[in-house]
Design brief:
The structure is a homodimer. Chain A is an alpha+beta fold. Chain A has 3 domains: about 15-210, Aldehyde ferredoxin oxidoreductase, N-terminal domain (Aldehyde Ferredoxin Oxidoreductase,  A, domain 1), CATH 3.60.9.10; about 245-430, Aldehyde Ferredoxin Oxidoreductase Protein, subunit A, domain 2, CATH 1.10.569; about 440-495 and about 530-620, Orthogonal Bundle (Aldehyde Ferredoxin Oxidoreductase Protein, subunit A, domain 3), CATH 1.10.599.10. The first copy, chain A, has 26 helices and 17 strands. Chain A has a 6-stranded mixed beta sheet with strand order 2-1-6-3-4-5. In chain A, helix 7 runs antiparallel to helix 21 (about 510-525) and helix 19 (about 480-495) packs across helix 24. In chain A, about 65% of the residues are buried. At the A-B interface, helix 4 and helix 14 of A face helix 4 and helix 15 of B.
């Protein structure tokens, strides 16, 4: 154990900048300011994006940047802290976007010696990047272009290293489908916001990494003790067992019963098929358990389909969100078809949430007679039709017929279709809603409305309302919701500097207190000793993301909800009669946030967060 | 180099017997008699099958045996000699069957120390066999049962060894589909005759092998010289370049023009789409070259599909036969759909020849009104419909609706349907015809009629008629066809003791002269020094296969052709007006074979072949 000064304990000290226009790369030193103010991961990404991507760039143009970051705990023995994060201006929302993925790519990137990669420019021809420690090559990808993620990955391992890790795009990303995902070699996705299309627009098929380095730890004894405490905390937490046994599939049926898992494009009609999604039934499909680098939870399960027209598949299971988006949201309870469509989405590189919402949107338009068989090329779009769902997944990925329009996201698709279609487009800021009903958990919904990336469940998953953690709160009430929304949003932003997995935050398997106990001995940076500083950095990140969007022209009018959520009372228990009281919630939230009534951070808040300089240029406050 | 006596130079000296009923295995010594009389591979298999499988066993019952053999040159530096062969009583034909596969399984099996494996009995529950040199385990396969070949292979490598090689079945074999295949980890198939169903009937998902041994060579110097000669012969042969560049795809269009690639279920109407199958177009799909163990030809190509509804695939290309069975035979020229259906067939484990012929059969029945939408569950079966073809491949594999019947093979399907369906069932002895028209090459067809396994193009590929090798012969003539049919049948049987690849025989890249030059120094067995002995062993094998069938009740009436081939003159050039003159051809052939008019070997022939004992028991001659 070394105790001498090293500014990069916990870090690798390098940022890799790859310019695809001129096929050059540079390795830049990590700066102390950046580390102290933003810690890592999501902090690095928004700071770099804010500083380097000017206002108004075309998200699919060469001036947009795609930033992949790791954190100071990535690749260490800390549990659940080795995720990777992609940040970019989103082609789906035209706003800031952060999208997080798991697997082994984050750890491998760090082992190669980098705290972040900045991808900029646009290659004339398809390429992939091969990073082998300090050796970085931009290579021709003609062979693997147009292949599914999985096929391309097999080829790329052969061309580089059998143990290489990678992030790839599939045919959807290549076709600039705006709901396309970034997909790792182990089928972990950073799916939301169209990162796949950003990568596709740069003609970049994959980033392939192999590394042999390791970050040094400042105080190994204290670090090891904190890790031990973390492991003990996990073992005592009932959520650990739930996630270990069945991952997010343990909550599918439960969440339906508490008013989430919104059915039939958020019409929220009773869904008879919900009983197919119990933990007992879903567990019967599991044939393998797996997990990310450095995580004892091992929440990935492999599903096997043994009968029916999708028999033969053994694939990474549909998460809670996907059982919903390809299931309950469409009135479909055919688990086999959901598993199959999930596989197609991984292969083509699609966001299963946005894709499912787009299919639900089309299905409701078909039901309402707004579109017909001429628009669907003869496909009958019925609620509860696995065949139509699977077919539309394919058409969206490959831009075939109506699929091409749906792949633009429901906001743009509704605008193009007109005829009142907008009413059925369930999104915030262009990002499709996930598997929660804002009417059934108001602070959770408030976070959808105010999230910088649009309707994301990950930006501020409200454990107060949903889990009663750290204290129980009435999910239907509107009082005090600003405060708890800010709490989870800031906490998440802070934890995503590590980069911790959200699943460990929602049950307090990880807290910012614990993070601080791990981070300080890892890095030796004095500031990180106090958990309150981590809270502050979380808030700083969240506010800088807000400022990014304000610079892009976003205002209070986009902190909103789809008409259905605002006006249609939920027809089923336990949320019967509930609507989403946007105005009350928003007013409270802005106040708690220290934002003015136009949703802009006040001068005081900016000063407190040391963001005055960033905001000053914009004259926003 | 050792020159001392070793009875097993070239061989491993062991046969592994696996009994799935009692989950025991024994390692038995290879016997000198067996080696000297039958050499290896196909010779071993028929001899063991004949001796051990009694008359009349249910092919899908525990008493049928599944024999996998290697040859004395397998796993050595000899080129193109490392294939593996599976032999069994076929559930499709109720006759003897031999089915040959490539890849690395054969070499690996030999490296594990075995010249053959005999699989017998039936496990109560799904199992796989894990052979790691002398360590043999019969393991539970509950996890991988019902998975596609590829998914199961990934799982099995994880459970055994990352470098293990294997033969697996897919969902089709598990469902006892009678046209199901045996599929290696590199997607090489031993597809014909329903080996997949035999394996499935035994509840055996896979045989997984890893070996570390090598056969010793008797005279390394002479052996190396012969190998050098072989390599030089290859380099001088134009066929080498053709196969190396594009594999069997180099001949697709050519064979259409010379009267093969029979279109529209052998109606042989002109096929406009044939122009899509030129070498130039097919080459444009290739993204990778690959090959079997110890073969410099590397005739496998990977196809990539970049556009249309099947975009994203990168898969082992459709061979000549598959471009035909999923293409021209159905009037379909959509290469992308053929590639996709080929992939499905590998994943589900189907024989693409029989599957395509079954689909063509159904399509013609639909055209003739013998079946309608009620039988097809609404599917419109039209010539040239990629969608219907792909859907039927899936239904056949998974036994859905009409697919269940078609998976029994066209013979049984026609019997079940009645109403004159038999007229459109293109098979011999129950085995569907391959991509050659017997009316366009009479000796080639004569081999279909007389092959012990049914209409196989591999049992006696007539290079005289098709290639003009070793001498040019009029393909339409009937004179002298018995002799050249016997020639290629015996030669093939002999070469399949090695086990040489058929592709090297058809162009005389390999001859029995060369085989002898390789085999004698490899084994040191005096008898093998004379190529005439190899010819004799080939004839012995072929005749013992015949006797096996006679014992099963086959007679001259099954040495026949479908009605269409016998009666309908070919309507297109260059074979316009041709029919297949069965009686003349058969009479000549029997005579040349030394068989009586009932197709039974004469006493003299049996004596010459040292098969009197085998035949005596049957009282056949």
């Amino acid at each position: 154990m070394s105790q001498e000064f090293n500014p990069w304990f916990g870090y690798m000290g390098h940022i890799l900048r790859i310019n695809l226009t001129n096929h050059k790369h540079t390795i830049e030193p990590l700066k102390k300011d950046l580390v102290e103010s933003f810690i890592g991961g999501r902090g690095f990404g928004i700071k770099i994006l804010f500083d380097e991507v000017p206002k108004g760039v075309d998200p699919l143009g060469p001036s947009n940047k795609l930033i992949f970051s790791t954190g100071p705990l990535t690749g260490t023995k800390v549990q659940s802290a080795s995720r990777w994060i992609a940040q970019f201006k989103s082609p789906l929302t035209d706003a800031y976007c952060r999208s997080v993925g798991g697997g082994f790519f984050g750890a491998e990137l760090k082992f190669a010696g980098y705290d972040a990669i900045i991808v900029e420019g646009r290659s004339e021809k398809p390429v992939y990047v091969w990073i082998n420690d300090d050796k970085v090559e931009i290579r021709d990808a003609a062979d693997v272009w147009s292949m599914t993620t999985y096929a391309a990955q097999e080829f790329l391992r052969e061309k580089t290293d059998e143990k290489a890790r990678m992030v790839t795009i599939g045919p959807a990303g290549e076709r600039l489908v705006k709901i396309s995902a970034l997909v790792t070699d182990d089928m972990r996705t950073a799916a939301r916001g169209g990162g796949g299309a950003v990568m596709g627009s740069k003609n970049l098929k994959a980033i392939v990494v192999k590394g042999s380095k390791k970050a040094t730890i400042h105080n190994e004894k204290a670090f090891d003790e904190a890790v031990k405490e973390q492991i003990e905390t996990y073992r005592k937490n009932p959520a650990f067992e739930h996630f270990k046994n069945l991952g997010t599939n343990s909550i599918v049926y439960l969440f339906y019963t508490i008013g989430h898992f919104p059915t039939y494009n958020f019409k929220q009609l009773p869904f008879e098929g919900a009983g197919r999604f119990t933990p007992e039934i879903l567990a019967s499909y599991v044939v393998k358990h797996n997990g990310c680098y450095g995580c004892m939870v091992r929440c990935w399960k492999t599903f096997k389909v043994t009968h029916g027209p999708y028999a033969g598949i053994a694939w990474d299971f549909p998460e809670y969100e996907t059982h919903w988006s390809y299931g309950g949201l469409l009135g479909n309870c055919n688990i086999e078809s959901i598993t199959y469509a999930n596989m197609l989405s991984d292969l083509y590189g699609l966001d299963t949430i946005s894709t499912g919402v787009a299919i639900a949107f089309a299905t409701e338009l078909y039901e309402k007679g707004i579109i017909g068989k001429s628009e669907t090329d003869g496909l009958e779009l019925k609620w509860g039709s696995p065949e139509a769902m699977v077919e539309l997944v394919k058409r969206i990925a490959l831009r075939i017929g109506l699929g091409s329009l749906l792949g633009e996201g429901v906001k743009r698709a509704a605008e193009a279709i007109g005829r009142g279609a907008e009413k059925y487009a369930i999104h915030v800021k262009g990002l499709e809603l996930p598997a929660y009903d804002p009417r059934s958990a108001k602070a959770h919904g408030l976070s959808f409305a105010t999230s910088p990336i649009g309707a994301s469940h990950c930006i501020g998953w409200n454990k107060f309302e949903i889990m009663g953690i750290p204290r129980k709160v009435d999910p239907f009430g509107v009082e005090g919701k600003g405060e708890i929304t800010k709490y989870v949003q800031d906490e998440t932003a802070a934890a995503e500097t590590a980069i911790f997995c959200l699943f460990t935050l929602t049950n307090e398997m990880v807290t910012l207190d614990l993070y601080s106990k791990l981070l300080y001995p890892a890095t030796g940076i004095e500031k990180f000793k106090d958990p309150r500083y981590l809270w502050l950095v979380g808030e700083r990140i969240f506010n800088l993301e807000r400022i990014f969007n304000i610079r892009e022209g976003f205002d209070v009018s986009q902190d909103t909800m789809p008409e259905r959520i605002l006006k249609e009372p939920v027809p089923r228990e336990p949320s019967k009669g509930q609507v989403f009281e946007l105005d009350i919630l928003l007013k409270d939230y802005y106040k708690v946030r220290g934002w003015n009534e136009r949703g802009i951070p006040t001068k005081e808040k900016l000063k407190e967060l040391e963001l005055s300089e960033a905001a000053k240029e914009l004259k926003v406050a």
